[in-house]
Specification:
homodimer; 175 residues; mainly alpha; Arc Repressor Mutant, subunit A; three-stranded antiparallel beta sheet; 3 strands; 53% helix; DNA-binding
DNA sequence: AAATTACGTCAATAGTACTGACATAATTCC
DNA sequence: GGAATTATGTCAGTACTATTGACGTAATTT
């Protein structure tokens, strides 16, 4: 069962006492695992994967962003994006428009079909978040947003909060 | 640039006004992306990937768990686990011990080497969490833990909080 | 005119996952 | 005791997402 030169089994659990915040590390893993599992069902119906979801999300969030900008947000390579983007364009979820100033650029926009799919994918995720915030007020929500934002690399924080809700006056942050 | 039958580009951004909590959806994506990027550097030195990290983590967290239990926690298939687990055993990070009651079972334990690697991988993640909680007190921390736990599928919450810190009396939840 | 930039594409490879099938040993059920 | 089930391991084939490196084209900048 154990090979001759194998080390001895350690029988005690690693814990927060080792100076590491395992509680939150683990919670973060489970939370994200289930968070991403929601849209996976829907994506399977289209023959799409998570990569398609991410592209669709950001094209809807920042319509008109260029290919280079998208690569920067997703932190993947051009070659990785190519297949996924091509499929989304071929299936009429995303359209490319020649850049107005620089004609080398391709501005990416969602179609009505792409907008609808992005919303359908986000709906179960939003529902999960709403349920998790059920008994929370604006204070708790702010705490969670601050925490998540602080988890992002400082130099990349510019990527977030680019799209503030264009609320007319609805106090929709409250619960 | 646009194919003949292509839909028209939508030029307005999708926002929280569409009834979806895009703010937190996006924050969660960025936060997790950077959270997992920390250990990736270290793993590369060993020729390991994220799958190895996850296995190593849970074997350290719940020493003696069986293969079946590990599959259940990770929510992957036996075949997916096989290669990764074999590599970790071959490199003497994990050892298998025959189950005491049921000899068909293989209890998984970390070696000293496996314990050390698990700690090394968790260290930068824990540092990131500590930094994100810098100005937070016990209340904020509790809010965040509650939120993350509520994001997990209810029927799977049994998987978490199995390993409470065996603190003697240190009030280590406070900052 | 030359260099750079933005984008697209081809080829090869890696890591992680999947389904389906089959084998072995140990336990449980009848 | 024999049959069924369980825990684990393994083989084969496939899919998705990602990588590096190289090359081509069109447009812009120097």
């Amino acid at each position: 069962m154990t090979s001759p030169a194998a080390g001895k089994p350690i029988r005690t659990a690693i814990t927060d006492d080792d100076g590491i915040d395992f509680a939150i590390i683990e919670l973060f893993f489970f939370a994200y695992r289930d968070f991403t599992s929601d849209p996976d069902q829907i994506l399977a119906d289209y023959g799409f994967g998570r990569a398609h979801h991410r592209v669709l999300h950001f094209v809807n969030r920042r319509p008109g962003l260029t290919v280079a900008e998208l690569l920067d947000v997703l932190k993947i390579t051009k070659q990785s994006l190519a297949r996924v983007l091509k499929q989304l364009i071929d299936t009429d979820h995303i359209v490319q428009v020649q850049g107005p100033r620089d004609r080398r650029q391709r501005e990416l926009y969602p179609t009505a079909k792409g907008r609808a799919l992005a919303l359908a994918l986000a709906r179960p995720q939003s529902r999960r978040i709403r349920a998790a915030l059920e008994d929370s007020g604006a204070t708790e929500r702010a705490t969670i947003e601050r925490f998540l934002e602080a988890m992002v690399n400082p130099e990349l924080r510019a990527q977030i909060d680019i799209v503030p809700a264009q609320t007319s006056g609805k106090n929709h942050g409250d619960h």
